[in-house]
Fold:
Amino acid sequence: METAISKVSAAIQGQQLPVHSPLETSTSTLTSEEMTREQRNAVNYFYARVKSVYGSKYKVTFPVPEGEEHSPEEKLSKREWGGQVMNLSREQIDNGISKLKQKLVDRQKDYDWPNIPFIAALCQPRPEDYGMPDTEKAWHEAEQHCHHVDKHQWSHEAVRLAGKRTGWFEIMGAETEQRRENLKAMFERHYDYLMHRVMKGKSLQGAQALLESDSNKKPVNPAERSAHYNDRKQQEAMKAQGINPAGGYAEFKKRMRLGS
Structure:
């Protein structure tokens, strides 16, 4: 028994946990009384699914003393790691367990034994689980297609909406690396917020007004304020000439053809 437990400890120590989404989790030691009924049910469901997958290995990792109904090691594990899964739905836990099974089929050594923090990380919903690209890919898509927004088939509505809230004309007209980095940071804040809404089952439609509130805006330095002002004036000039600012260079060329 000691050998098996030692294997689990060795598998956990000195390894980096898989990256998980920043949904509400806790690494604090939590007692059952500190969780709601729904949270306790989620934790118990998670451990029950892990137990069903590992069978005898789970019993070795969390042994039940003779004459007792529950394993002290399991209780301790729930207190230490329950915060990582207490806010997940059964569907999210089931999805994580499906990923776990695939890793076992692929014989990934990190999962030979019930490695609770690793398995909990698998259950955390990721953008790709909802058809969303990661932040870097989303920004690249916004940059590449900011000049033909209406014609591009967006990988996810959250990407388009984050780009819209950042400003298509601003993205298209970023001439300096500093300006581009500022816009990228702004896009990432919008996209991160939208990703959270999608992964929590909330509507993106309701996010539009929230993104416009002052509480979601980062203070703008004088240089960036000046850039915003110039962008605004340029957009107004283009509109006065009948040019769609969101159309970018393609719209400009179209306008030039009509005037020739």
Observations:
- Residues 79 and 238 are 61 Å apart (CA to CA).
- The radius of gyration is 25 Å.
